[in-house]
Amino acid sequence: MIILEHYFTNNQNLKSSMRTIKHTIDNFVFTFYSDLGVFSKNKIDYGSKSLVKAIIKDNIRPPNLLDVGCGYGFIGITLGKILSSKVTLSDINERALKLASKNILENNVDGKVILSNAYENIDGTYQMIVTNPPIRAGKKVVLEILKGAHAHLDKDGVLYYVIRKDQGAKSIIKELDEIYENEIIAKDKGFYCIKAKSR
User: Fold this and answer.
1) Which single residue of 51, 67, 90, 94 could bond 114 by disulfide (Cβ 3.0 to 4.6 Å)?
2) Is the pLDDT of residue 12 over 70?
3) Per-residue pLDDT at 6 exceeds 70
């Protein structure tokens, strides 16, 4: 029987094969350390890139932001640097968080990491919460992350998330309509980048 390892699980016996990924956006040059056992280990995920571009274009500069399911930290670190925000990166994957800590230092960003299953260990509220939710973990987990953001947003805070159209973006938006005003701010190669404000 083959057991598939997912980037949202922890495997203490997983081998390490560190690599670096370079990325440039808005004249900022970033270096990210990546490894086996994390999401999009060899290149920056297209959906994550689309979300970052859409948020920058939306021209909001929050004093603090939370990146939920951060992986090695691409979204939160990039936004933290470009928007001059203090960032908190959270994930359930311990290896991803070690990489995220390294990447915070490498890219000279004001930030910290928290080991957390969704919002389990998250205190306080944020002006901005961002996420590229782990679709492979299932819709229940995705909705837990997206709905759970509501309790951790400041009064005028904003949630940004990205989901592919063919992975149920429209049905998820519909399910969130009770608690958020959802606005699709970008469509890019099947990815929907959504801005959500609390009702």
Assistant:
1) 90
2) no
3) no
- Classify residue 60: in a domain, yes or no: yes
Mean pLDDT value across the chain: 91
3-state secondary structure the chain: CCCCCCCCCCCCCCCCCCEEEEEEECCEEEEEEECCCCCCCCCCCHHHHHHHHHHHHHCCCCCEEEEECCCCCHHHHHHHHHHCCEEEEEECCHHHHHHHHHHHHHCCCCEEEEECCCCCCCCCCEEEEEECCCHHHCHHHHHHHHHHHHHHEEEEEEEEEEEEHHHCHHHHHHHHCCCEEEEEEEEECCEEEEEEEEC
Domain count, the chain: 1
Residue 154 in domain: yes
Print the domain residue range for 116.
Answer: 19-198
d(CA 164, CA 64) in angstroms, rounded, equals 27
- For 114-153, the pLDDT digits (tens) are 999 999 999 999 999 999 998 877 788 899 999 999 999 9
Q: How far apart are CA 103 and CA 126, in angstroms?
A: 21
CATH number of 114's domain = 3.40.50.150
Q: Tell me if 166 is assigned to some domain.
A: yes
Cα dihedral value 104, 20, 118, 139, nearest 10: 150
Q: 97 by DSSP, 3-state: which?
A: helix
User: 3 in a domain, yes or no?
Assistant: no
